[in-house]
Design goal:
alpha+beta, Rossmann fold, Coagulation Factor XIII, Chain A, domain 1, six-stranded mixed sheet, 10 helices, 24% helix, globular
């Protein structure tokens, strides 16, 4: 079902946009012409006997240029994103900033205390309990023993592990481990927080809790360097972002543009991309986008087989007759699952005046498998839909929960088995 309505402007909440970090006198993180290369030997000796038997065998190496001549500055209080495909060098660069790896050339300058949250379980002793590990890690990150003891209850409460405080970490699941590590890292009074994509291990509820914590840290003016594959999170939190490929900086700038470049790098030309570029100067704009359940309540998660509506509000800058409203639903990796258009599913959309606000709703049964899905709303003049007026890539998201089957859709299927 497709529906339109003209809402009262005062009743529609406007989306919050991130405030840009102001340039500081000195950067929190300064990276100057940094390069990092790994040497990968063709022949590896695992025992002393092998080395003794082949003392004159020459060792040949391949060189992996993980980071190539990267230069950038991250301002104090800036939420900075680093994105790229697997093997692009983003995690290596973060480890160089954290001091885990030395650099082959260049210089990294850090102004403040760092709290790294880079690799799952690093710094934890699997044979110790959560109680002992929290104390040890908090002290290693700069807290005194008294401060570590005072904040222990807050760490365990945030991680929701009260029942497992005295359980050894080797008996923890990966999700429990990442909750404990993140809860410990955010309790340290640091100016700079380094976060790798390990948050993907946590469940949907914990991820939402982490996102709320990101907002708190952002309000407090903390500097955060965030490595992720989630373009929605990157655009939602980051002031600026960088795209890496094969160790090089491909692009640096606005998170939305970086997200578009990332999808193009992975999947080629995006749907409606040419139209989206033409739409940028039309004056008509998409104000916000969201999902609703069958009762009309706004939601961020939905169960399988429940009714689901993709919704967005557009503010018109000109008179329009039968404009084409469209909603595109994609996976986090950018694969298009659903393209719904008003002219194909609802007929003529009607006549609208300049200055009006219009809400479009696309209702459908939720046959999606468990994952996060991104909503791209768009509006075009009547016709083929190519003459776009407004389009916002991955403006909203919903997490679908339920039983995973391994496919993309859980379509209703009638099965018939007959003996012949």
């Amino acid at each position: 079902m497709l529906a339109f309505r003209r809402p009262l402007a005062s009743t529609i909440p406007r989306p919050a946009t991130p405030e840009l970090a102001q340039p500081a006198a000195s950067a929190a993180v300064s990276i100057e012409c940094v390069s990092k290369t790994f040497r990968l030997p063709h022949q590896q000796y695992s025992t002393l006997k092998e080395r003794a038997l082949h003392p004159f065998r020459t060792t040949e190496y391949d060189e992996l240029h993980a980071v190539r001549d990267i230069s950038l500055e991250i301002a104090r209080g800036e939420f900075f994103g680093i994105v790229g495909r697997n093997g692009s060098g983003k995690s290596t660069l973060l480890k160089c900033v954290a001091g885990i790896y030395g650099v082959d050339s260049g210089r990294i300058t850090i102004a403040g205390r760092i709290s790294p949250f880079i690799e799952l379980g690093v710094g934890f002793n699997a044979d110790l309990t959560a109680r002992d590990n929290v104390a040890i890690n908090a002290i290693m990150l700069g807290l005194s023993r008294r401060e570590a003891r005072a904040r222990f209850d807050d760490v365990i409460a945030f991680a929701e592990l009260e029942e497992f405080v005295d359980l050894k970490l080797k008996n923890y699941s990966s999700g429990m481990l990442v909750r404990l590590a993140f809860a410990t890292a955010i309790q340290v009074d640091t100016e700079i927080l380094l976060i790798d994509e390990v948050l993907a291990v946590g469940d949907a509820a914990f991820q939402q809790k982490c996102f709320e914590e990101f907002f708190r840290l952002k309000r407090e003016g903390k500097t955060i360097v965030f490595v992720t594959h989630d373009m929605y999170s990157m655009e939602r939190f980051c002031h600026r972002a960088m795209l890496m490929e094969r160790g090089n900086m491909v692009q640096l700038g606005d998170p939305r543009e970086i997200g578009r470049a990332y999808h193009k790098l992975n999947f080629g030309q995006l749907p409606h991309q040419t139209a989206a570029e033409a739409a940028s100067g039309s004056g008509t704009m998409i104000v916000e986008a969201w999902f609703e359940d069958a009762s009309g309540k706004r939601i961020t998660s939905a169960g399988q087989e429940e009714r689901l509506s993709m919704c967005f509000e557009a503010r018109l800058a000109e008179d329009l007759l039968d404009p084409v409203f469209a909603a595109t639903l994609r996976t986090e990796l950018g694969h298009t699952i659903i393209v719904a258009r008003s002219d194909e599913h609802g007929g003529a959309s009607g006549q609208f005046k300049a200055g009006e606000s219009v809400v479009a709703r696309f209702e459908l049964p939720n046959w999606l498998t468990p994952s996060r899905y991104m909503l791209t709303p768009s509006l075009a003049r009547a016709g083929t839909g190519a003459d776009a007026l407004a389009l916002v890539e991955d403006m909203s998201s919903v997490v679908v929960h339920g039983q995973a089957s391994g496919g993309i859709l859980e379509l209703p299927v009638d099965v018939r088995i007959e003996r012949v």
